[in-house]
Amino acid sequence: MRTLVTDIGLLAGIGTGLRKEGLAMSEVGCLKDAWLLIDGEVIAGFGAMADRLPSDVDETADVAGRMVIPAFCDSHTHAVWAGSREREFEDKIRGLSYAEIAANGGGILNSADLLHRTGEDELFAQSIVRVREMMAAGSGAIEIKSGYGLSTEDELKMLRVIRRIREEVPAVVKSTFLGAHAVARGMTRENYVRLVCDEMIPAVAAERLADFVDVFCEEGFFTPEDTALILETAARYGLRPKLHANQLAVSGGVQVAVAHGALSADHLERTTRAEIECFKGSGTMPTMLPGASFFLREPYGNARGFIDAGLGVALASDYNPGTSPSGDMRFVMALGCIQMRLTPEQAFNAVTINSAYAMGVSDIAGSIASGKLANIIVTRPGFDSIGSLAYRYSTPFIEKVILRGKSL
Ligand SMILES: [Zn+2]
Predict the structure, then answer these.
(1) Å from CA of 77 to ligand 1 middle
(2) Which CATH class is domain 73-358?
(3) What pTM did the predictor assign?
(4) Which of 109, 173, 254, 308 has the fewest beta carbons under 10 Å from its own?
């Protein structure tokens, strides 16, 4: 099936590079008055309406001057969880910190208890709703982590649910094993790290359930030494790291991430010059999660510092029940502009091509390019520039989401 989309007012996000860094973060490839050819699941070409249109097509869809952009890529989510942690919302309003909530038996351990009591089918049913919500909000590629299991059996349950989601939805879904999200109840940190390395990683690898490995390398959770041990073990099973680092304090996580060839180091609310320098020349994408900063009233990452140093930045939602209960990447883009003072173009690149890179899919998603998946958003009338998406940040802007060439 070849579908020709015609009369696109602005086709934005054109490009073939795998990531953008430094000054290139300010550039968004655009074509006014354009057409786009979709062949099955992929983009087969694009061009100006003034030029000759492809003739060998099965159908034509006139979008009457609408803007077309690539679907968002969300490289960091915890979208599989059981139940709700709404009660903690009130604790947070009353002023308890993340660490205090965790110390009171809430936080990740609370989610682990709920998940343990929830069967795989029920967990899938609850989680697929969130993934569909994310797709409807424009996300065409989504990374999902385990990490609310904290036992071999429950971590495998989470990862099997992620696999079922991947088989069910048109979005590209990547799976990350985050056994080292917190130390399970009743275990020492040392014993838990041993469990992750000796039992969980081999079991995950045996079922080929994960694309990546992640560790919560944070003060009070896992040290850089624990992290290195887990990453070295995972590397033997072919799992590339994506790391949680520098959310609660300068953790040393960035250095471990870069040393182990991580695809991304995520959070980075607290970074010094040394962390920024560390990323230079690496393949590791600095990734920030402004939805978590917003929800927790914590500092935002110094995204501009990274860009000024010639680096790229990705933004992701961190969709999770405790610290970022939103998977809305357009809101993430707006926070990038409003709170992190990124230009709309920088924030747009951060939620599309760079976030695609941070989850290892920028060869098939994150921009408009021939051969990439036809994952696109057709915007509503009135949204005719990249800036308008972030400026009118709560006005519904999506007319249609098309993933793998088909409308949702
Ligand atoms: Zn996270």
Answers:
(1) 6
(2) alpha beta
(3) 0.97
(4) 308
